[in-house]
Amino acid sequence: MLVKGIRSFSPDNNNVIEFYKPLTLIVGSNGAGKTTVIECLRQACTGEMPPNIGGNGRNWVMDPKVAGESEVKAQIKLRLRTSTQMPFVVVRSFQNVQKKATLQFKTLDATLQTYNKDTHAKEAVTYRCADINAMVPSLMGVSKAVLDNVIFVHQEESNWPLADGATIKKKFDEIFAATKYTKALETLRKLRLEKTQEVKEMRLKLDTLKSHKDMAASFSADIAAGSAKAERLHADIQQLQAAIDGHAVEVAAMDAKLDQIADVVDELSRLRAQLEVLSAAASEKLSRLDGGDFEESDAELDAFLQELKQTDAEGASRRESRVNELRVKQMDAASYEDRLQQAQQQLSRLQAAAEAHSSNVADRDAFLTATAAKLGIRLPGAAAAAAAGSEAGVVLPLAALDAFLGELRRRQAALQGEVVAMREAHRAQEADVAGRIDAANAELARAQQQGALKTADLRQLQARRDNLQQQVVAMSAVPYQAEELKLQEEDLCRRLEARKGEEARQDFEAQLAQQKAALERLAADMTALRGERDRFIMAGDAAGRARLASNALQAARDRLEGLLQGSAARQLIELAGNPQPLPHGAELKRLADAALRAREAEVKRKSTQLRDMEAELARRSGELASKRRQRVAAEARCQELRHELRRAVGSISMALDQPVLDALHGDDVETAYELAVQQLERVRNAAFRRMEKSSAFNNLLGMVLEDGQRECRCLVCNRAFANDEELAEMVSYVEEQRQELPARRTMYEQEIAELDRQLNGLNAHLADLAGLRELQGSMEATKAAEQQAQAQHDSQAEQVESLHEEANLLDVELTSLRRAVTDAGWSIAKQAAEVDDLKQQADAAAERAAQASGAQQLRQVEELDAELAELERQQRAADAAREDLNRRQGRIKDERMRLSEQLAAAREELRKAEQANRARLETQSQLKAADEQMGVLRSDIEAAKARVGPAQQARDGLLAQRDAMRATQLAAEGAKQAELKELSAAEEAYAAKQRLVEGYGAEQKEAQMAQLTQQLAELKDKRDACNREIVSLQQELDQSAAKVAENQNLVKTIEAVIDYRATKRQAEQLQQQIGTLTQQIGQVGDRNELQAGRAAAEEAAKEAQRQRDTKQGSLGVVLEQVKASKRSLADPKYAQIHARYRKQLIELKTTEMAAADLDKYHKALERALLAFHTGKMADINKIVKEMWQKTYRGQDIDYIQIKADAEGTARSYNYRVVMVNGGVELDMRGRCSAGQKVLACLIIRLALAETFCHNCGILALDEPTTNLDAGKGWRCGACMLGY
Description:
InterPro entries: P-loop_NTPase, Rad50/SbcC_AAA
Protein name: Rad50/SbcC-type AAA domain-containing protein
Number of helices: 23
GO molecular function, one term: G-quadruplex DNA binding
Radius of gyration: 70 Å
Organism: Tetradesmus obliquus
Oligomer: single chain
Distance between the termini: 25 Å
C-alpha cells in the first residue's frame, strides 16, 4: 500500500508498505501513523472515512498550510488479491484546496486496476465512489459490514461488542445481513397476502365479468330490435312531413295574398291621411301669404332668390372684413394701453432707486468720517465737507477716500510683520527649552530601565534557585533506592529460572496432543452413530406423515362444514331448492346456477315489459310536448304582440289619460291601445280646430285693419277714431297681433303633423291587435288539450314507476343471489375438491405407514441413543481433562510471564534511579552558581536607584519653566492679533458701503428715466388715434346690418311661396297613388274566400302534425332505448367483454399458483435463515469459548458467550455478551474490567473473522494488547496461530 498526503504522510511520500504473510507488525511512537495505516486500508476497501474526524474528510487530508502549498493532493493505492487469487489495485484520490477564507475538500474519482483473464494485460477503469465501494468488497469475497466491523476496525470502535444494545444489534444485523433477509421475508409475506387477496378479488371480478357478458348479449339483441322499429317509424314520419309541407305551402300562398291585401289597405289609409294633412297644410300656407301666390314662375323665383342670397353673401364678406379690421384696431389700442402702464411702473422704480443711492452715499461718508476720527487718520478735504455739512448733496472727495483706504492697508501690513517676527522668536525659545527637557527625560529613562532589567534578572534567578533547591531535596533518597532496586532484580532472576525449569518438566504439549486425539476418535464414533440413527428416524416418519394427512383431512372437512353453515351458503341452498340429502359441492353449485338462470330470465321478461311501457310513456310524452310547444308558441306570440302594442302606446310623446295608464298597469294592452287611439284622434281634432280658428282670426284682423284705415272707425265696436293717434294705436295693435299669428299657425301645424305621425304609428298595429285577439281565442282549446294529454301521461308514468320498483327489487335480489353463487359456490366447490384430494393423500400415507415395522425401529433408536449418550459423556470427560491441562499450563505460563514483566520493570526502575542520582549532583553545582550571580545583581540595582532621583528633579524644573514662557508668549501675540482684526473689520465695512454707491453709477439709472418719459408721450398719441378708428368702423357695421335684415324678410316670403307650391304638388301625387292602389285590391282577389281556404289548409296540416308528433314520440322512445342500450354496451365494463372474461380466468389460475409458490418460498427461506443463523452463532460461540479458556486464566469467568434473543415472531434478534461462572450467566457489559473488556472484544472479532472470512484471510489489529497484561497478550497470540 502507498499512502500520500494523509495525516502525517507527506504528499511526496514514495515508500510502499508491504504486508507479509502470515503476520506484519508495525511498531512506532505516538503520531508515527500506525492507526493511519488501518484507516487507509479501510478507506481503500470500503470508502468509509475514519470516525470523529469532522470537516467531511478535509481534516484527514494534510492541510495545505502545513505543506506550504495552496493545494494538497492525497492518494491511497492498495494492491491485493481477489478470492480467486487474481491481483487488482484500488486507487483513491482526494484534494484539499486553500481558498481565501475556507478549506475546500474534494473526493476525486477512484480507479480500479485489474488483469484480463485471457490476455493478462492490465486494465484500469475509473468509477464513481459509490460504484467502487460496492465492487471492492465483492472482489475480496466478504461483505462491507465484515470489512467495517471485523477486519478493519478503528481503534476508537474496537470495543463495539460490549457497546449498548442498539449498537451491537446494528453491527450483528449488518454482519449477518439480517435486515436484508428480514425485509425479504416480510416482502414475501406481504406478497403472499396480496396474492391471496388478489385471488379473492379476481374471483369476484370473474363473476362480475360473467354477468356483464350476459348483459352485453341482452343489450345487443335490444339494439337490433329497436333499430328495425326505428326505421319503420322514420319512414312514416317522412310521409307525414311531406303532407305537412304541402299544406304549409298552400297556407303560405294564401297568407301572401292576404298580407298583400292588408298592405294595400294600410297603404291606402296612410295615403288618405297624408292627403288630408297635405291639403290642410296647403290651405294654411296659402292663407299665410298676404298677397296670395305670386305671378312669377318657380324658375324666376329661384333665380331672384339666388340673386338675393348672393347679395347677402357679398355683404357678409364685407362685414366680416370690417369686423376683422375693428378687432385689429381694438387689439392695437389694448396693446398701447398695456405698454403705457408698464412704462409708468418702470419710471416709478427708477425714481425710488435714485433716492436709495443718495442715502447710501451719505451713510458711507458718515462711516468714513467716524472711523478716521477713531483711528486718527487725516482725510484731505474733510474740513471743507464738514463746514458745508448743512447743505444737501455735499460728499467727501475721492482723495479723502483713497487716503483712508491706503492708511488702513499700511497699518495692517506693519502689524502682520510684527506678529511674524514675534512668532519666530517664540519658536526659538520653545525649541531650546524642549531640547533640555528631552535630555533630562532620556537620562531618567536610562536609569529606570537599568533598575528594572536588573530586578527582573534577580527574580528569574531567585525562581531558578528555588526550583533547584526543591530538586536537590526531592532527590536526597535516590542513592538508597538504587541499592534496593539492584537487590530486587537479582531475586526476580532466580525465581524466573525456577519457573522455566518447572514448565519444562511438566511437558503440557504432549499431554494436550493425547487429549486432542482421543476427542477426535470420540467425534468420529458419534458421527457414525448419528447417521445410523437418522436413517432409522426417516423410516419412522411415515407414520407421522400419515397422522398429519389425517389431521389435514379432518381440518378440511371442518372448513367445508363451516362454509355450509354460512349465510351465503344457506342462501345458495335455498336457491337450489333445499335438496335432501345435500349434494356434493360441484353438484350444489350446478343446481344453484340453473335456478339463477331461471331468475335472470324472469328479470329479463320484466325488463322487456318495462321497456314497452316506457315506449308508450315516451309516445305520450311526445304528444304532451307537442301540445306544450303549441301553447308556449301561442303564448310567446301573444306576448310579442302585447309587447308591440305596449311599445306603440309607450311611443306616444304626449301625456296619456288616466284610463290608458290604468289599462297599461293592469296589463290590459288591447284596451290601452284603443283608448290611446281615441285620445290621439280627439287631441288632433282639437288642434286642427285651433288652427282653423287662428286662420279665421287672421282674416278678421285683416278686415278690421282694412276697414279701420278706410273708414277711420273700429269695426268691432263701430266707434269712430277721435284723431290719428288712436288710429295709429289701433293699427299698431292689429299689426302686432297679426305678426304673432303665423308663428302660432306653424306651431299648430307641427303639432298636427306630430299627432298624425303618432296616430299612423298606432294604426300600423291594428293587424297585431286582431292577431292577438284571435290567438287568445285559440289558446283556450290548446290548454284543454294539453291538460288531457298531461293526465294521460301522469297515469302512464305511475304504471311505469310501479313496474320500475318491482324490477329494482328483482334486480337487488338477483344481485344478492349472484354474489351468493360467486362467494359461497366457488368456495364450497373448491373446498370439496380439497377434501377429496386430502382424502386420497391420507389413504396413501396410511398405506405406506402400514408397511413399516414401528416396534423394531423404536427399539433400535433407543439403543443408539444410549450409545450416543455414553460417547457424549466420554467426550465431556475428555474436554474437562483437556481444560484442566490448559488451565495448569496457563497458570505456569502466567506466572513465568508475570515474573518476566516484574524483572523488566525492576531493571527499568534501576536505570531511572541511577540517572536521577547523576542529575542530583549536577543540580547541586547549579545551585551554588545561582547564589553568586544573585549577589552581583543586588549591588547593581542599588546603584541604579541612586541615579533616578536627581534626574527626575531636573526634568520637573524644566517643565515648569516651559509652561510660564508659553503663557507670556500667548498674551503678547493676542494683543497684536486684536489690533490687526480691528483694522480688517474697518476695511471690510468700507468696501461693502462703497460697492452699494458704485453699483448705482454702473447701471445708468438717470439716462433710463429720461428715455421712459419720452416713450410715455408717444404711447398716449398712438392709443388715441386707434380709438377714433374704432368708432368709425362700428358705425359702418350698424348700417350694413339693417340692410341685411330687410333682404332676409324678402327671402322668407319667396321661400314660403315655393313651399306652398311643393305641398300642393305632393297632394296631387297622393291622389293619383290612391287611385292606383284601389285598382290593385280588385286584382288580388276576395279577402273572405282567401281566409276560408287558409283555415281549411291549416286544419289539415294540424291533423297531419298530430299524427307526426305521435310517430316522433314513439321514435324518440325507441331511439332513446337503443341509445340507452348502446350507452350501456359502450360502457367500459362491456368493452371486449369476452376477451376480458377469458383473460381474467387465466389471471385467476396463474395468481392462485403464484400464491402457492410464494407460500413455499416464504417457509423455505425462513427455515434456511433460522438454520444459517443458528449454525453461525454456534460456530462463533464455540470459537469464543475455546479462545477465552486458552487465553484467560482468572477464576471469576469460566467462558463468555454471545446470546441472540429472538424479538417477537419475526426473524429479528437482540444480541448481548454474557460471562458464565459456575453455570450462572451474567451480562458482561458494565461488570467487567478494562482488560477483560478488551480481551473479550478481541476474541469476538477473531471468532467473527474465522467464521465469515473464509475467502479473505486479512485481519488488522490496532494496539491489540492495550490494557492486557503480558500473559494474556502471549496467550492471545498463541491462540491466533491456530486460525
